[in-house]
Amino acid sequence: MKIHEFQAKEILRQAGVAVPRSIVAKTAEQASAAFTELGGKIAVVKAQIHAGGRGKGTVKDNADQRGVQLVKSAEEAATVAKNLLGKELVTIQTGPEGKQVNQVLVEEGCDIARELYLGIVLDRAAKLPVLMMSSEGGTEIEEVAAETPEKIFKEHFNPALGPQSYQIRKLCKKLGIEGPAARAAEKFIKGLCKVYVDTDCALAEINPLVITGDGGMIALDCKMTFDENAMFRHKDLAELRDLSEEEPAEVRAGNTGLSYVKLDGNIGCLVNGAGLAMSTMDIIKLHGGEPANFLDVGGGANVDQVTEAFSILLDDKNVKAVLVNIFGGIMRCTTIAGALLEAYKKLDFNVPLVVRLEGTEVEEGRKMLADSGIDIIIADGLTDAAKKVVATVA
């Protein structure tokens, strides 16, 4: 689960991790008032969307307006906010369609002496969180990893204990952080790591992490994502979810208990099992097709879920054919066949439907489809299914 920068910074603030003073604004007038309330000579107006690269991102059809802009007056803050709010911001992570800006963060200016990168993720191979730091603050970490990986320094830590002081000193030495900044680093890093563990983060990223002129350390930006499977432990964090930032079809699927991810292709996929769903997308690609989605109905899907799954697929205007790929283990082929036939009666199937069934009660399931009188293309094996569905959209 993703949250906005201003929400992440509030979490850090409550945990005693240093962040600049800031105010959220949803109108130009609020942005003007925020600048005045902050009381400084400069401020930064930052678009709040669930995507990185906002500083380099530009408003759709207006390349002069960037997602992060420095302002020197209340009037200028209002103008920048007006040019961002309600507009689509296009960044390296949004794609060409961009994301609509519904709110901006007006943040006080900061005395920047140096910019660093700081991130925490789970290293699944080591089965531990890993703390990463780099001298290349303000730069996309993917670029640093690809071009100058030697500039990224890592330290794994025990989540029950947090990073130890000697580990932080090692990182500071490698990055040339000394004196007051090194002391500030210990407090800042330990505080951020505690937030990461306590809130079941999947990612906590500070970019840039700023060393101020007086040797302090402050989070100039913050990105946090959380393990959705742990949100039952964090009702307060679950309330921070902004559904307007998410793909509507994915939200709809999640509300039905389906695992769905929208893609850019034209072949809809309905599969039981995440691994089989991935294999299905791979084999469609292998035979020259483009999957329109990942969709796992799970092992216990009922008629209502299958109907909703088909409805989601058919509502995607890019979908020109649908491939149903079921391996009956927990899920019986007769169950999915019955659900498929019920769904077919309720929905307007205006695209070719290819079905591959294997496993428990497969013969009975195939017979149900064959006797239905419905125009369904039956496939014998996954390769045959992929070739047939690709052929329908060729």
UniProtKB/TrEMBL annotation:
<feature type="binding site">
    <location>
        <position position="46"/>
    </location>
    <ligand>
        <name>ATP</name>
    </ligand>
</feature>
<dbReference type="InterPro" id="IPR005809">
    <property type="entry name" value="Succ_CoA_ligase-like_bsu"/>
</dbReference>
<feature type="binding site">
    <location>
        <position position="110"/>
    </location>
    <ligand>
        <name>ATP</name>
    </ligand>
</feature>
<feature type="binding site">
    <location>
        <position position="107"/>
    </location>
    <ligand>
        <name>ATP</name>
    </ligand>
</feature>
<feature type="domain" description="ATP-grasp">
    <location>
        <begin position="9"/>
        <end position="239"/>
    </location>
</feature>
<dbReference type="InterPro" id="IPR017866">
    <property type="entry name" value="Succ-CoA_synthase_bsu_CS"/>
</dbReference>
<keyword id="KW-0547">Nucleotide-binding</keyword>
<keyword id="KW-0816">Tricarboxylic acid cycle</keyword>
<keyword id="KW-0436">Ligase</keyword>
<dbReference type="GO" id="GO:0000287">
    <property type="term" value="F:magnesium ion binding"/>
</dbReference>
<dbReference type="InterPro" id="IPR011761">
    <property type="entry name" value="ATP-grasp"/>
</dbReference>
<feature type="binding site">
    <location>
        <position position="115"/>
    </location>
    <ligand>
        <name>ATP</name>
    </ligand>
</feature>
<comment type="subunit">
    <text>Heterotetramer of two alpha and two beta subunits.</text>
</comment>
<dbReference type="InterPro" id="IPR013650">
    <property type="entry name" value="ATP-grasp_succ-CoA_synth-type"/>
</dbReference>
<comment type="similarity">
    <text>Belongs to the succinate/malate CoA ligase beta subunit family.</text>
</comment>
<dbReference type="InterPro" id="IPR013815">
    <property type="entry name" value="ATP_grasp_subdomain_1"/>
</dbReference>
<dbReference type="Pfam" id="PF00549">
    <property type="entry name" value="Ligase_CoA"/>
</dbReference>
<dbReference type="GO" id="GO:0005829">
    <property type="term" value="C:cytosol"/>
</dbReference>
<keyword id="KW-0460">Magnesium</keyword>
<dbReference type="GO" id="GO:0006099">
    <property type="term" value="P:tricarboxylic acid cycle"/>
</dbReference>
<keyword id="KW-0479">Metal-binding</keyword>
<dbReference type="GO" id="GO:0006104">
    <property type="term" value="P:succinyl-CoA metabolic process"/>
</dbReference>
<dbReference type="GO" id="GO:0042709">
    <property type="term" value="C:succinate-CoA ligase complex"/>
</dbReference>
<dbReference type="InterPro" id="IPR016102">
    <property type="entry name" value="Succinyl-CoA_synth-like"/>
</dbReference>
<feature type="binding site">
    <location>
        <position position="221"/>
    </location>
    <ligand>
        <name>Mg(2+)</name>
    </ligand>
</feature>
<dbReference type="GO" id="GO:0005524">
    <property type="term" value="F:ATP binding"/>
</dbReference>
<dbReference type="GO" id="GO:0004775">
    <property type="term" value="F:succinate-CoA ligase (ADP-forming) activity"/>
</dbReference>
<comment type="pathway">
    <text>Carbohydrate metabolism; tricarboxylic acid cycle; succinate from succinyl-CoA (ligase route): step 1/1.</text>
</comment>
<feature type="binding site">
    <location>
        <position position="207"/>
    </location>
    <ligand>
        <name>Mg(2+)</name>
    </ligand>
</feature>
<keyword id="KW-0067">ATP-binding</keyword>
<dbReference type="GO" id="GO:0004776">
    <property type="term" value="F:succinate-CoA ligase (GDP-forming) activity"/>
</dbReference>
<dbReference type="InterPro" id="IPR005811">
    <property type="entry name" value="SUCC_ACL_C"/>
</dbReference>
<protein>
    <recommendedName>
        <fullName>Succinate--CoA ligase [ADP-forming] subunit beta</fullName>
        <ecNumber>6.2.1.5</ecNumber>
    </recommendedName>
</protein>
<dbReference type="Pfam" id="PF08442">
    <property type="entry name" value="ATP-grasp_2"/>
</dbReference>
<feature type="binding site">
    <location>
        <begin position="329"/>
        <end position="331"/>
    </location>
    <ligand>
        <name>substrate</name>
    </ligand>
</feature>
<feature type="binding site">
    <location>
        <begin position="53"/>
        <end position="55"/>
    </location>
    <ligand>
        <name>ATP</name>
    </ligand>
</feature>
<comment type="function">
    <text>Succinyl-CoA synthetase functions in the citric acid cycle (TCA), coupling the hydrolysis of succinyl-CoA to the synthesis of either ATP or GTP and thus represents the only step of substrate-level phosphorylation in the TCA. The beta subunit provides nucleotide specificity of the enzyme and binds the substrate succinate, while the binding sites for coenzyme A and phosphate are found in the alpha subunit.</text>
</comment>
<feature type="binding site">
    <location>
        <position position="272"/>
    </location>
    <ligand>
        <name>substrate</name>
    </ligand>
</feature>
